[in-house]
């Protein structure tokens, strides 16, 4: 039972991280561009 609880907690954290990354990408932020796609020289796919 403990393993299932830990697995569900970990899955929840991973889901939140992925949701945050998607939200940042849609708002024009990207890890590959130093969090600011306006300065990446066109390498960001969303801009």
Structural class assignment = mainly alpha
Count of distinct strands: 0
Which strand-content bin applies to the residues? Answer: under 5%
Round the Cα radius of gyration to an integer and report it. 15 Å
Provide a quick synopsis of the model:
The chain is mainly alpha-helical and 47 residues long. The chain has one helix at residues 2-26.
Description:
It is a single chain. This protein is mainly α. 53% of the residues lie in helices and 0% in strands. It has one helix spanning 2-26. The termini are far apart.
What would the keywords be for this entry?
47 residues; mainly alpha; 0% strand
Helix-strand layout with pairing:
Elements: H1 2-26
């Amino acid at each position: 039972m403990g393993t299932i609880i830990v697995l569900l907690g970990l899955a929840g954290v991973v889901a939140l991280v992925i949701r945050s990354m998607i939200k940042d990408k849609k708002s024009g932020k990207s890890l590959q561009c130093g969090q600011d796609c306006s300065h990446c020289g066109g390498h960001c796919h969303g801009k």
